[in-house]
Amino acid sequence: MPDKDTDKLLDELIQGKTPEEILGQNGVLKQLTKRLVERALEAEMTTHLGYEKHAPEGRNSGNSRNGKSPKTVTTETGELELEVPRDRNGQFEPQIVPKGRRRLEGFDEKVIALYARGMTTREIQGHLQELYGVEVSPSLISNVTDAVLEEVKSWQARPLDAVYPIVFLDAIHVKMRTNGHVETSAVYLALGITKEGNKELLGLWVGESEGAKFWLNVLTELRNRGVKDILIACIDGLKGFPEAIEAVYARTKIQLCIIHMIRNSLRFVSWKDRRAVVADLRAIYTAATEEAGLAALQAFRAKWDAKFPSIGRAWEQNWPNLATFFAYPDPIRKIMYTTNAIESINSSIRKVTKKRGAFPGPESVRKVIYLAIQKASANWRNSIHWWPAAINHFAIVFEGRI
Length: 402
What we know:
alpha/beta, 3 domains, five-stranded mixed sheet, two-stranded antiparallel sheet, elongated
């Protein structure tokens, strides 16, 4: 905590000054930062030489101060013109502003934070110029954000738990430049619920378009990273998806996302019939038992098949994978039959991707989405409050597997 003398000194420094004179490009804050850094550099030189400036111990010591060199460094509040001390033997290696470094601590983090919000390199360049008077090139910003890629690689390759009770598998789509053309690419996401009831994003993968063959590669990678068993996989209605899961995790139960089924069903329905169709579909998936749900489906077909035959037929064809959740109590059902858990992640990702016309390549996609995920995960609750009861239920249903 600042003492009274410090408060008095600060009051004297800012008394009568405008915000521009305090925070502007040549304001008090910048001058104080310059003085503070230069004093720190002088202190480092004293430590290096072993004696204070002008101290008699320095005579015939074999090394001494040898003037200063100008150096411009970029900070999160603008550019600083510093005077960096030199020693006669050329052995001084400053720590606060290392040789060859042109950015102070904190600048890179600010750039990465702006990038995580979905700003393009050009937008970040303009933002830094407008607010701080800092001129940086797009290539510098790219170099700073490229440092995230090593972190992404480590995160993507990390070992995973042996068993996940529930895993949500979904994909979102982004625009990306490929061979000079803008094309739609899929970003594949796998969200696991751990045995402790915590959400964990297992990885992200960038592919040309969503397909069961790519999902097979994703699932194979999960197995290679240590995932030996998945009790329940919650997925959309992509053709061939259940077969891809069965090829890697033969004992995994499949749950098709009810929300995806409803959306697909409503593509065939006129606006005037939508409310009634939705209500009748709701009677199917909110039924107390699978038998009651199947009876509601038959009632739906009797009422709507003449007008919308493809809806009831699709629900009946997919029933074995749609009805999985009926075997579980209500709290588990709600988390199973929709992909809401992963949709919330998708929403966070779309907030940062919608501002971009097209990504220059897959590395840019990985950087932006990884940072968005890290930002979103900071707000995740530690665990699902009803999870202890759920895990006990799983232990009985999936005896010996958890």
